[in-house]
Design goal:
heterodimer, A: about 425 residues, Rossmann fold, Ubiquitin-like (UB roll), de novo design (two linked rop proteins), 5-stranded mixed sheet, 17 helices, 9 strands, globular, B: about 190 residues, Arc Repressor Mutant, subunit A, Glutaredoxin, 4 strands, about 40% helix
Chain lengths: ~425, ~190
């Protein structure tokens, strides 16, 4: 079992959480907020900002785990027209609630991070694309931006400089696919949210055809801390390759569901049994999704798996968006998988064939299995559909994720699948009413 | 005589200037139209298209892609019930069934006989730590129980006060409202 970490060096994102009225500019400022942005715009170059973030080792927390400094450095420095930071606040991954939590507690942290990121890529505008259901975070960000303008932190002369910076909001209207960055950009441009073919990548041709870096809420919310305390200080946290802290949301069959900031490298046992209090009374943990519903499941026997991102990749799964869904022995894996496949089929944008057709095929197959009409044939179909959704056959990751749900639940819980498909029984607890 | 009011159409015509390219105004414009009418009629979508110099079919194509645009009449009060995995594990199915009984409808999208209520079963709304949860009249409701559903419905039946308005594009209309902050301490 890996050494318990989690407390080394203290929290980063949630450092000030719990302070009364942290969402107001006055309180945020009094704690040291906007000092990073002030330092950046008054005394640093864009390259110095990128270098500091590079030192921190910060990687994207939206799920792709891509080095943030590298993403920024891909935006061409000599581009004559506008360049944009687009903030992905379309958090829709089942099991993930951490971006909402960060925005509701400290909206200025995101505004400051987005402004710093704009400066780092040589742009002047950040657009926060926020999912339409997030009414409260939307209102809080709107008010935070207005406060920052009123104080002169945003606008034509932030902190007395001549480097205009603005942060704007754009509301989504309900589409999981907008979490995919090129689909999000299409939506921001007023189109149906269907992923683009790449290349060109957003760094060269992103929002409104201009060079763009798309960053997640948590990623940008981390940036002010890094600029205040230094990249090296951030890099003291975490593992050799996966630096820092990250947010996780723990939900499902668990004693203390919640959002937790963890140091990367602690184990899932530390989170699920430690922070979140473990299984409900009288029940046994059976399976968990380590990083949103799109991450391949791990059985409870693998609770000692590290949250180290590269370690998860080696296991074929991922830390993803940090949404840890826990399920115990009272719930059936096949029904859970069927429910998730309905989600992926419904949210498929329809642009590429494997995802559009494969998802629905899987849903119909699960329906037959759960109606006790299954046989070896249905299990074979699930295996083939799962394979057909993966490994680059789809335009974006949505199809892969659907395939991973089928493949990983089938691999680890073949007995439950065979109970349903071949023996027409469910030997697990109560039924899921909505499976 | 247009479906949408003249002042709303003026407001919609002013939207494109806010964005680097005018087409980005289509969703904020549809939002305004939906706020005024409750749902998007074909006539309303055509008027939005005309106001934005876009093809009517294009605007309808956008409206039909996103789940928060409604193309059929809905209740004055909408219950968006999360039924994704985390909520389902914690009893969302029973909560939805209870709601159906309380408001007297059989399926998602059906409007109650008094016109006050309808519900939708929706995908994850990003508040899994409070499962089962729902979005009711632009606010999240957490840790739902049948009793809480009864209370939410009763409050809305007895109250004649209007809904909190749909949030305007970028929220640039009106003044910031006092906030109600739901915080949960980490760890």
């Amino acid at each position: 079992m890996a050494e318990r970490r989690g407390t080394v060096g203290g929290p980063v994102l949630t450092e000030w959480f719990g302070k009364p009225d942290l969402h107001t500019l006055d309180v945020y400022r009094s704690l040291g907020g906007y000092s990073a942005m002030q330092k950046v715009v008054t005394s640093m170059t864009a390259q110095q900002v990128i270098d500091e973030v590079k030192t921190s080792g910060l990687r994207g927390r939206g799920g792709a785990d891509f080095p943030t400094a590298m993403k920024w450095s891909f935006v061409p420095k000599d581009h004559p027209g506008p360049k944009y930071i687009v903030v992905n606040a379309d958090e829709s991954e089942p099991g993930s609630a951490k971006d909402r939590y960060l925005m509701e507690n400290s909206p200025h942290m995101l505004v400051e991070g987005a402004a710093i990121a704009s400066f780092a890529i040589g742009g002047h505008h950040a657009w926060i694309y926020i999912r339409g259901e997030y009414d409260l975070p939307f209102e809080m960000l709107r008010d935070a931006i207005a406060e920052a303008h009123a104080k002169g932190y945003l606008g034509d002369h932030p902190f007395g400089t001549d480097y205009p910076l603005d942060v704007r909001l754009y509301r989504g209207h309900g589409a999981y696919i907008c979490g995919e960055e090129t689909a999000l950009l299409e939506s921001l441009e007023g189109k149906r949210a269907q992923p683009r073919s790449r290349p060109p990548f957003p760094a060269l041709k992103g929002a409104w055809g201009m060079p763009t870096a798309v960053n997640n809420v948590e990623t940008l919310s981390t940036v002010p801390w890094i600029m205040r305390n230094g990249g090296a200080e951030y890099a003291k946290r975490g593992t050799e390759k996966a630096k820092g802290t990250r947010m996780v949301t723990v939900s499902g069959d668990i004693q203390r569901p919640g959002n937790y900031e963890i140091e990367i490298g602690i184990t899932y046992r530390d989170i699920i049994e430690g922070l979140a209090g473990g299984a409900l009374p009288g029940r046994q943990l059976k399976v968990f999704w380590p990083g949103g519903s799109s991450a391949k499941v791990l059985p409870a026997s693998m609770l000692d798996t590290s949250t180290d991102l590269d370690g998860l990749k080696a296991l074929g799964t991922m830390g993803g968006s940090g949404g840890i869904i826990v399920m115990d022995d009272s719930h059936c894996v096949v029904k859970a998988a069927a429910r998730l496949l309905r989600f992926y089929a419904f949210e498929s944008c329809g642009k590429c064939t494997p995802c559009r057709v494969g998802g629905n095929w899987a849903v119909r197959t699960y329906e037959r299995i759960l109606a006790n009409e299954g046989s070896q044939l249905e299990l074979g179909i699930l295996e083939r559909v799962s394979e057909g959704l993966q490994n680059g056959r789809c335009l974006c990751g949505l199809g892969d994720a659907a395939g991973w749900v089928i493949e990983s639940t089938y691999r680890h819980f073949r007995d439950e699948y065979e109970d349903h498909a071949l023996r027409h029984t469910c030997n697990v607890g109560k039924a899921l009413a909505h499976a | 005589m247009s479906t949408l009011s003249a002042h709303l159409l003026d407001e919609i015509k002013a939207l494109p200037a806010r964005y680097p390219q005018p087409r980005s105004a289509v969703m904020p414009a549809l939002d305004l139209a939906q706020e005024e009418l409750g749902y998007l009629t074909p006539e309303a979508m055509t008027e939005v298209a005309t106001a934005l110099n876009l093809d009517a079919g294009y605007v309808e194509g956008v409206a039909t892609f996103y789940t928060l645009f409604h193309l059929e009449p809905i209740g004055k009060h909408r219950f968006y019930m999360c039924t994704n995995l985390s909520c389902t594990l914690r009893g969302a199915g029973e909560i939805v069934e209870h709601l159906r009984g309380v408001i007297g409808v059989k399926e998602p999208g059906e409007v109650s006989s008094d016109g006050l209520f309808s519900y939708e079963e929706v995908e994850c709304m990003g508040a899994c730590e409070y499962a089962p949860m729902a979005r009711v009249d632009h606010r999240y409701r957490y840790d739902l129980t049948p009793e809480k559903i009864d209370q939410l419905v009763a409050e809305r039946k007895s109250s004649s006060s209007p809904l909190s308005p749909t949030l305007s594009p970028e929220g640039e209309r009106g003044k910031p409202k006092p906030k109600r902050v739901s915080r949960k301490k980490s760890g």
